[in-house]
Every structure is written in C-alpha cells, then in structure tokens.
Specification:
The chain has 470 residues and is of the alpha+beta class. Helix content is 42%, strand content 9%. It starts with 35 loop residues before the first strand and ends with a helix.
Length: 470
C-alpha cells in the first residue's frame, strides 16, 4: 500500500473502486476513475488507482499572453535604424574614384562639401600618401606618390621606334597610353585609304544632424586640400644639341600612331608624365590630418548614430545615399578621356593637327607609314632607313615579303614628282612559284593603294594650310 493519505471524498469500499479485472502488477497503472469536482477547492481531482495514489491538478484562471516577437516599425521608440557601421565602408571605391577627378576639373576642389560615404576607405587610401613614421603607423602600407594615388600615372604605353635616331623604346609612359586610348573613342572620323582588297528634431535628432555636418566638413576640407595641388607635365624639355627630328611610330596591336615633330615635342609623349605637386611635400602632413579627420568621423558615427532617433537616422541615411549617387556619377565618367583632353590642351595638340586614316590591310598601313615618315625629307634620304620601318611593321622574312619591302623602299626613295611604280610586271619575279607571284601582286596593289591615300592626304594638308593663311 502507498503512504499517500486517502482523499476524504473517496469511499474505498464503494463498488466503483472495486476492480473487475485482475490486480495490476506493481509497475503497471490500472484503470482511470471518473473525475470529481471539488468546487470549494476550485480544482479538478483525478484519482488513479495505482496503489491508491491521488494527484491534484489546479485549474488556471488566467491565460498568460506571450510578448510579440517583432515590434511594429512605426513605434520609433523601439526601432533603431543603425547605419553607422555601413557609412564608413559603403561606397568607398566610388568615393575614391570621384576624389581622383578633383584635378581634372577647374573648380572641382570647391565641390566636395557633402556627406560622402566611405570615410574609412578614403582615409586608408589617401593616408598612405603622407610620409613619416607617425602617419605610417596610422595608415600602414606602401607609400604611393600623389600622382599614382590619384591614378594620374602607372599605365604603360606601346613600343616606340624613332625613324631618324633609331631609338627603340619597348614601352612608353602614361601619356603615350592616353594618346593610344584616343584612337578607339576619338571624335575624329578616320579617312579610309583606297583599297582593292579588305581584311576582317529632439536631442537624439541632433546626434545624427551633427554627424551629417561633420561628414560635410571632413569631405569638403579633404577635397579642398587635395585639389589645391598643381598638376603639370614632367618631360625632357631640353634635348641634347644636334638631336635629329623626333619622328617615329607608336606600335599597337592593330594600330600605328605616327609622330612627326621636334625632339622636345615628341619627348612629351614618349617620355613625359604627369607631375602633381601638393603642399607640405614630402611629408604631406595636411593630407595626413585630413585622413585622420575622416577616421575620427567614422568612429564618432559608430558611437553617436545608434543613439539617434529614427527621424535623425533616416536623415543621415538619406544624405549618405544621395552622396553615394553623386560619387557614382563622377566615377562613371571616363577618367582617361578627361586626362587625355587635359594633356592635349596642355601641349597644344589641337584637333586640326591630328589626322586619322583607316587602312584595309596591314601591308597598306606599313607602306603608308613609310611614305609619311619620309615626307618632305631631302633625297637621297639620310638619317632614316625605310627598310627598318617596314621590318618593324611586317617582319616576315619569306622571299615574297623581302621582294615587296625592296620594291616599297625603292619607291619611297624617289624624289618628289618622279613616277611611282608598283606594277608587278616591273618587279623581278625570279625564284617565285605561281602562288607566291599571285601573293606579291596583291601586296604591291596594297602598296599602291597606300601611296594613293598618301597623295590625297598631302593635297588635303596643302588646302588646309592655304585656308588658314588666307
């Protein structure tokens, strides 16, 4: 028997408690008796005939409501729009690219007064310009000169071959690269050469407003300090005495740029580079202070923006998005096109001095280049070797190409007014089979097309000079 006391309402001798089945084993619970309600105790009592143990379960009068997992956003006292951590990193690349255009527009340094995002990224990028132990500790990494940090240098140009001096530069500088990029997206329509064949407000509001104001100040001051530098072109302004003309060619994959002019003028393209002079050289302490201000702005945003109200945080986020859109617009501009325009305006390379021609084949391009480089030179030619020019453009060493180059050089060396002959009947075809003779005939026709284009170009230049003089 159990030691639990019997309930007073239970009559153990009643027939209801007499089992009509075999007694259960000590570990088995028997049948479940009906419920009995004790209103005075306000409880439901269940009697289990398991060694006469009696359990009492209370009735719950009140239902407990669980709190909602998500509070409504409209309750601004509970909702927190924390955008402080995003503001220091979001839009950093666009901001750096936009800041790099500060030297390419006149008056651009005055247009940086807005709450630009990406303050932490900007500080890390431009803080490395400063050169001292203190700034290197705050902004670790390799120190770049300002001209490289603002992407005004660092690109390599194509191979350059001088037609008179024989100078060969396997790669040129950033300015030559800019000049070659202009061949793809130039406003000058190329003149096709003749072709016979073709090739293929609460206090919490003020926290956020203060951060917006600090962002405007830090961005504006940084843009002004960086934009106060002087951008110039560094080149060899005084070449050696007795230097020949700087005529030569820039060799690209599918294009050739012919340079004609004095040595000092061509040096600007082949050896020149942008030079950015900022105040405080060489430590550039002012740039370091601006970068430090941007980092302080980032830390204060982390601290104060979460303390702001929903209205203030929304205003802060709106200013960040608007500034990011403006930076994205500046970053979408063709930076190299702006640099190329600035470069051409600086050296006086006007559109009238640039002519563009489109050849149908590379052989026509090679012959045309040879005729242009030898233009207006006294005959017999001295100081220039047309054969070397052709070898740079078409270095094929088969008998067909050798005979073609010999014929082109022979015609280039003729004096002005002499008959130019590219007829295959007047060329020595000995040692060539039928296939090679047919190929040489086509190559000579390409050379004749190039010469016809050269004559048209010469006539156009004469008419242009007469128009300008009159």
């Amino acid at each position: 028997m159990s030691n639990f006391p019997a309930h007073p309402a239970a009559n153990l001798n009643s027939p209801a408690f007499k089992p009509s089945y075999p007694a259960p084993s000590p570990t088995t619970v028997s049948d479940l008796n009906p419920f009995a309600m004790d209103e005075a105790a306000n409880s439901v009592k269940m009697y289990f005939k398991a060694e006469m143990a009696i359990f009492t379960l209370p009735v719950l009068e009140h239902v407990m409501e669980l709190p909602a997992v998500l509070s409504p956003i409209a309750d601004s006292k509970k909702f927190n729009l924390n955008a402080s951590a995003v503001a220091g990193f979001f839009g950093g690349e666009e901001a750096i690219t936009a800041m790099a255009t500060v030297h390419l527009y006149r008056g651009r340094r005055w247009l940086g007064w807005y709450n630009s995002p990406g303050s932490y990224i900007i500080a890390k990028e431009f803080g490395r310009i400063s050169r001292s132990r203190f700034w290197s500790g705050l902004f670790p990494g390799s120190n770049h000169p300002p001209v490289v940090a603002f992407k005004l240098d660092g690109k390599t140009g194509p191979k350059y071959v001088a037609s008179h001096s024989g100078t060969v530069m396997q790669q040129t500088g950033h300015l030559a690269h800019l000049l070659t990029q202009g061949t793809d997206n130039s406003d000058i329509v190329p003149t096709p050469l003749p072709a016979s064949r073709h090739a293929t407000i609460s206090l919490y509001h003020w926290y956020c407003f203060a951060m917006i104001f600090l962002g405007i100040i830090s961005s504006g001051v940084t843009c002004f300090v960086i934009g106060s530098g002087d951008l110039d072109i560094d080149t060899v302004k005084t070449p050696a005495k007795g230097s020949p003309a700087g005529d030569g060619i820039l060799l690209m994959k599918n294009d050739v740029i012919i340079l004609k002019g004095k040595e000092k003028d061509v040096n600007v393209i082949t050896k020149g580079k942008f030079l950015l002079k900022l105040k405080g050289e060489p430590e550039y302490t002012a740039i370091g202070l601006c970068s430090l201000l941007l980092e302080v702005q980032f830390l204060l945003q982390l601290l104060l923006i979460p303390q702001g109200s929903l209205i203030g945080q929304t205003m802060f986020l709106t200013s960040i998005i608007a500034s990011w859109a403006y930076n994205s617009f500046l970053a979408s501009l063709d930076e190299e096109k702006l640099q190329r325009k600035l470069f051409c305006d600086t050296i006086g390379l006007r559109q009238l001095t640039v002519l563009s021609f489109e050849a149908s084949t590379r052989t026509s391009m090679a012959a045309f280049t040879c005729f242009v480089l030898c233009k207006d030179l006294p005959r017999p030619l001295q100081g220039i070797k047309p054969m070397n020019i052709l070898l740079e453009l078409v270095p094929n060493e088969t008998p067909v190409w050798q005979k073609w180059r010999e014929q082109v050089v022979a015609q280039v060396k003729k004096k002005e007014g002499e008959m130019i002959d590219f007829q295959s009947e007047n060329v020595d075809m000995s040692g060539l089979d039928e296939h090679d003779r047919a190929l040489l005939k086509d190559l000579l026709q390409d050379a004749k097309d190039a010469y016809d284009g050269y004559i048209l170009m010469t006539d156009d230049r004469r008419s242009l000079k007469n128009t300008k003089s009159s």
